[in-house]
Amino acid sequence: MSGSVAEIMAYGKASGGENDLLELQNCFRRSEEFIGAAKQQDLTRWGALTSYNLIRTNLMRYEGLVEAFKEKRSLAECVAIIEGSTC
């Protein structure tokens, strides 16, 4: 969910997020408790809003992580960026 939200924030549209939404729908289907289409849609919107707020609140770390991905940095370095420590 966060990947699609980040794409929309950066480029105004997202491509490739369809698989994520399909997997989320499959998770809802496998759930023991049937919550219905309206609740599924509400939870999906909540997830998108939460992703947006997390990215916006941590924008400098997010941008650092994007740069680390571009530079193919190690997992430890990426985690350090997220945690706010230097690596």
Shape: elongated
Order of helices and strands: HHHHH
Estimate what percentage of residues fall within beta strands: under 5%
**What is the count of helical runs?**
5
Mean pLDDT figure:
91
Q: Span between N and C termini?
A: 27 Å
Largest sheet: none
Structural category: mainly alpha
- Point out poorly predicted stretches: none
Q: Rg from C-alpha positions? A: 16 Å
Q: What is the number of E strands?
A: 0
Fraction of helical residues:
over 70%
Break the fold down into its secondary structure elements and pairings.
Layout: H1 2-11, H2 18-30, H3 36-57, H4 59-70, H5 75-83
Jot down its keywords:
single chain, 87 residues, mainly alpha, 76% helix, elongated
Task: Describe the model.
The chain has helices at residues 2-11, 18-30, 36-57, 59-70, 75-83. 2% of the residues are buried. The protein is 76% helix and 0% strand. It contains five helices and no strands. With 87 residues, it is mostly helical.
Task: Briefly summarize what is shown.
The chain is 76% helix and 0% strand. The protein has helices at 2-11, 18-30, 36-57, 59-70, 75-83.
